[in-house]
Structures are given as C-alpha cells and as structure tokens.
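If your schedule permits, I should be very grateful for your opinion on a structural question. The matter concerns a single protein, recorded as an amino acid sequence and a row of backbone structure tokens. Could you please explain, in whatever detail you think fit, how the structure tokens follow from the sequence? I set the record out below, with my sincere thanks for your time.

——
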Amino acid sequence: MPASRFTTRFASSLLMAGALIFGTATAQDAQAASKRDKAFFQKVEGTWQGPGEIVAGKYKGTKFTCTFQGSMPNAKIGMTLDGKCRVGVFTQEMKATVVSAGKSYSGSFLDGAKGEGLDIVAGNVTKDRAVMRLQRKQLEGAMLVRLAGPQTLNVTVSVDVNGEMVPVIGMSMNRIDTSTVSSIK
C-alpha cells in the first residue's frame, strides 16, 4: 500500500473514536485536580515504544510499532506525544498535543480535524489515566491513555457505533528511556 494511503487509512482508523461524558470539577476541586493532572502528565514524560494493533474495521489485524517522546508543553498542564508509527516498510509521523482549557482539555491529533487528523475537544484526568474526547465532523470518539505502571503506557482509541463504544486501536508501550519519573506531592 502506498505511504499516502497508509497515512489516510491509519488516520481514518483513529477517527473512529466514540463520545464519552466528562465530569466537571467544582471550584474547590480545581486546584487539587490541577496538581493531580500535572502529576499524571509528568509521569508520561519520556520515551515510549511498543506494538499496537487495529482491532476493528476494514484493517482489523493490522499490527504496527510506535515510538513516542512524551513531554509537557511549556508553562501549561498537558502533554505532547510526538513520534512515529511503522507498518512494514511504511513509517508515519504521529503527534498529539493536549493542553488544559478551563475545566477540560483541548488539542489536536496530527493537523486536527481541518486537515487529516482530529480535534481533541474535551478531557478528564485521574491519577493513572486520561480520557480525551475526539471529534472530526460527525465522527466522535475517545482516546484512553493509561499508566499501567511506571514503565507501561496503554493507549486505546474507541468509536461510538450506534451508542456503543467499540475499541478500534490498542497500543501497549514500554518506557525505553532511563529518566526518573517524578510526582508532585
């Protein structure tokens, strides 16, 4: 498959993510939530690598490998995952950026919904996971980023199909850098 078709197919698979309902924090909870969110994103900083698979749809069973560098945007609460995914001899650059936007989150995957990617339109962070709502035109979905431990990062992209969340892409990556993971107390 030509690289441009791979890019379109991979991005199209990611567009199949489903809507979630996100809770809102009270004003008193905002400061605590901000510290908790920052602590989570700090734990995502570093280099991650691992396999993934398209688990539903036309390209079900397609396996790929990704390497991402996780970092926090300057002076903001959020994260950037920047790197590449590879299927056979084809490599696709990937980048997702999420930043705090009031009580929620916003950002983009690739070049956002105006290009070939998607918009991140909302989000919620807990101690060990971030759930981001994805959108592109009428397609809605969610991306779950979960720290399964200090050395394991799992990412699942799901879509809303007739009101039911259906996982489409799953990745399990391991930390490959030697940096120390810190936490805010």
